[in-house]
Amino acid sequence: MTGFPRQLLFLLLVLLPISFSSACCGAERRVRPEITVRVTPDSVLVGDRIRCTITVHHSEREIAVLEGFDRSDTVAEQPFELISRKHSSSLPLSGAGKDAFEFELAVFGTGRQSLPSFTVVLRDTAGKVTKKIPCQPSASVFVRALTDSTMHDLRPVKPPLKPSIPSLLIISVIVWVFGVAGVVLLLLFLLKRTVRNSAERVDSGQVAQRKLRKLGSSLSAGMPPHECYEELSNIMRSFLENHYRISALEAVTQEIERDLKKLGVAGFESIMNLLKQADLVKFADSRPDVEESRQSLHKASEVIRTTRAQKDEG
Amino acid sequence: MQHAVELEELGVQIKEASRFLEKAGEQLSQRIIGQHEVIRRIFIAMLVNGHILLEGVPGLAKTLIIRTFAAAMNLKFQRIQFTPDMLPADLIGTMIYNPKDMEFYPRKGPVFANVILADEINRSPAKVQSALLEAMQEHQVTIGSQTFPLQEPFMVLATQNPIEHEGTYILPEAQVDRFMMKILVDYPSYDEELEIMLQSATTASELPVLPVVQPHDISRARALIDRIYVDPRVQRYIVDLVVATRKPAQYGMANLETMIEYGASPRASIFLLLAAKAHAFLQHRAYITPEDVKAIAYDTLRHRIRPGYEAEADNIKPDDIIRQILQHVQVP
After folding, report:
1. pLDDT tens, A43-54?
2. Alpha-carbon distance A140 to A50, whole Å?
3. Does residue A279 belong to the interface with chain B, where contact is any CB pair within 8 Å?
4. Quick check: A249 and B331 CB within 8 A?
5. Is B216 helix (H, G, I), strand (E, B) or coil?
6. pLDDT band for position B239 (50/70/90)?
7. CA distance B191 to chain A (A)
8. Nearest residue of B to residue A286, measured between CA atoms
9. Among the listed residues B267, B238, B263, the one whose alpha carbon sits nearest the alpha carbon of residue B253
10. Which of A247, A252, A287 sits opposite B289 (nearest CB)?
11. What pLDDT, on the 0 to 100 scale, is given for residue A13?
12. B302-316 pLDDT per residue, tens
């Protein structure tokens, strides 16, 4: 029996330190939360960016969440503009957890600028809040104003804003607009070609002959001969313009003569005689009688017929 | 019909009265090779009491043309070289004190002639230019307190060099406007240059120019020119052309609105009509046609249109603007 208590005592002596140490270890596993804030660089120019790292050490059974730091009302009050944020968790030691929050901030204002306050919320694995630690970081950044000597390049005053309209929508609208414009242009081109073709189909000679017949009727109805010559000149000029594609309406008789000579129009003398006769009536106050006017109309009709026939042969 | 007969008779008289110009033209063609249009324009200006601004590089026979013209027309010629140190008195004359009778007498300047060649007019300051321009406008000169009428015909032919502007006094627009025509004297053609070279490269003295015109020839021609018939259609055409330089959009040329800083003055309409009449006279016609107007439109309008900034940037000259106007304004 003496052997048994001795063995029991030995066992107790062996197990006691182990249980004590494990109790101590269990007590150590309940790590006190530790928060560090680091800012790099600590001195910048207005508009530059800084990197702020908030590290929270806690027990492995907890999850750290940062509140308040990236809230727009909090940051907007401060001379900081949040550019980006990153969060990472790790277990550097058994029983201890670490959460690292990295913020990229654009800094405005000048002088010493303190970082905005925030709250670290610790939750257990069930999501229950175990602790809330408000924190006012002591770290700060010194912001230097831009001067001529420091302005070596352009710095963004504000970070670039993301377009409120999705780029895909913009692209689709542009494609749609270009598509519609293309269709309209195509329609205009087709319309113009159709109009031109139909205009070409209208024989200028026929039109002139019809106008001459109408003018003859007006002359018989009592139209003054000098007015008849004026109209005759217009008919001939319109015919020449459409038939030979020369600008006869804005040209003087001499210019028409030069153009017709250049084109090698056979019998252009008759055309020129008619135009010169009309010029005499228009500009030299010449007053031909009705019979002369009738003969001129007849000549004009002949000239147009001959010219058309020559073109058809050609 | 009565009017048409009158015009026919007037046409015969014009043909008869214009013979002196043919004779003068023959004399000129013996000394001047080419430059027919310049000579024609000088005749036009002389017939209607106008003055001419000649623009061309040196050596294009500008002085020779004018000197020969004056000699052939039997007119007193004076060449005045404008320089920066010139004074108005060097041009119009001054009062000279005579100690013998203790009185001032006027000494008339070179402006007292029929044909004045104002060589390089833009080399003299504005006060000298304006002294000449006053004589051009009023046909009289005041020296001291006395006013002297100038001899008729009185014609100023001024020259300026388009490429050299250093040390020049550019003629103000108001003064340029008093010239009836601005003629651009261009280089002769290849054949003309060959002929000029062969004719001029000699040590022999120049051929003498015979005075073939009598003073009454010019006054008779002027009287006939005044009787040349201008149809209301042509009158309106002239006004249309001038108004189109001011309000091109009204004539379907909206693109010219920004090209023209300011258009031609009413003096342009007057000179356009006068020059067209003289042009018709040279054609032995007793009436004007739009051809006469178009023929002298460039020379009469080019110095009266000031191109705008856009035109200058696009290197658009007044002649380009006039060409477009002539192409767009409908001929009657």
Report:
1. 888 888 899 999
2. 11
3. yes
4. yes
5. helix
6. very high
7. 24
8. B4
9. B263
10. A252
11. 66
12. 999 988 888 888 888
Listed by start position, the domains of chain A span 31-144, 202-313
B229–A285: do the CB atoms touch at under 8 Å? yes
Residue A150: its pLDDT value, please? 57
Confidence of residue A253 (pLDDT cuts 50, 70, 90): confident
Helix (H) or strand (E) holding A182: helix A167-201
Which tops the pLDDT comparison, A264 or A50?
Answer: A50
pLDDT higher than threshold 90 for residue B278: yes
Cα torsion angle, A170, A175, A178, A179, sign: negative
Which residue in A230, A231, A285 has the most chain B C-beta atoms within 10 A of its own C-beta, making it the best mutation to test that interface? A285
Instruction: State the smallest CA–CA distance between residue B280 and chain A in angstroms.
Output: 12
Look at the block and give the residue holding tokens 């670039």: A160
Token look-up 């081109």 returns A189
Which CATH code fits B24-200? 3.40.50.300
- pLDDT at residue A201 is higher than 70: no
| Count of all residues that appear for chain A in the document | 314
The answer to whether residues B70 and B114 touch, using CB atoms and an 8 Å cutoff, is yes
Listed by start position, the domains of chain B span 24-200, 229-328
Burial A166-177 (b: 16+ CB within 10 A, else e): eeeeeeeeeeee
Contacts 24+ apart (CB under 8 A), A260-266: A265/A307, A266/A310
A31-144: CATH topology: Immunoglobulin-like (2.60.40)
* Helix, strand, coil tally for chain A in percent (to 5): 50, 25, 25
Contacts with B224 (C-beta within 8 Å, 6 or more apart), sequence order: B10, B13, B14, B17, B281
pLDDT at A314: 56
Distance CA B297, CA B179 (A): 14
CATH T-level fold of B229-328: Helicase, Ruva Protein; domain 3 (1.10.8)
- Give the Cβ contact number of residue B66 at 10 Å: 23
The alpha carbon of residue A294 is apart from the nearest alpha carbon of chain B, in Å, by 18
User: Does pTM top 0.80 for this prediction?
Assistant: no
Nearest CA in chain A to B294: A252
Chain A residues 149-168 with a CB less than 8 Å from chain B: none
Nearest to A285 among B231, B326, B331 (CB): B231
Amino acid A74: pLDDT:
53
> Could you tell me which residues come within 8 angstroms of residue B201 by beta carbon, excluding any fewer than 6 positions away?
none
- pLDDT for A23 equals 44
On the question of pLDDT at A154 being above 60, the answer is no
